[in-house]
Amino acid sequence: MPDHAPATPAAPATPPAAHEFAPGLFVRGLTPPLRLADYRLVAFDMDSTLINIECVDEIAAAAGRRDEVAEITEAAMRGEITDYKDSLRRRVALLAGVPVSALQQVVDERLQLNPGVETFVRACQAAGLKTLLVSGGFTFFSERVRERLGLDFARANTLGVYNGRLTGTLQDRPWGDICDGAEKRRVLLEVCELMGIDSRQAIAVGDGANDLPMMGAAGLSIGFHGKPAVREQAMVSIEAGGMDRALALFGA
User: Fold this and answer.
1) Is 203 helix (H, G, I), strand (E, B) or coil?
2) Using one digit for the tens of pLDDT, what is the confidence trace for 38-73?
3) C-alpha angle with apex 245: 242 to 246, nearest 5 degrees?
4) DSSP of 193-215
5) Global pTM?
6) Which residues are catalytic?
């Protein structure tokens, strides 16, 4: 580990109080300026973090069940539904019969990168960090986002499809069936091990309760317009403006 690698202890049971570094930009437990060069990996959640939508909600709109699905999504992201896998299976089941063409329509008409995402990702890449997308969403979308941003690694869930329509199920993968909070943490730690780095040299960026396990394992956690549970625990919380606002915390 390099001399400048951040030495972040395990997160305490009660996180230290945050203070406002700049309007809408809060920090806790750290003193800027930081150095991007001290980190080797940055891991991102996808829905409502890298992109502006919750993909499952947009697919549900095609089935006329957006409100029903969105209610479960919001409760899960707030941490009110603690069994993420069950909540996702419930939502995916409601998508049965939706044509695959509706997914492409979501990409074409609704999916956009969030403000400042491309600037922040490019800065991390320029500093030599590897990039990881790890999502409780779906590979149909994550692979397109990975390609657009030139990310190194990606993991997400795969929707079951038969005769051009969603089956309302998720495909089993070699690593399991659902990428939940525990899997996000495991993937971050696994990539760190494969890279030969300490997890303190990783940055994790997310917005929902299921991002907290990987955020807690990383040396630097960034909440981007996060739900209350994330705002209460993230080392950096961006509550106004784009993701590139995090760059204000880094010196040369």
Assistant:
1) strand
2) 999 999 999 999 999 999 999 998 888 889 888 888
3) 120
4) HHHT--GGGEEEEE-SGGGHHHH
5) 0.90
6) 45, 47
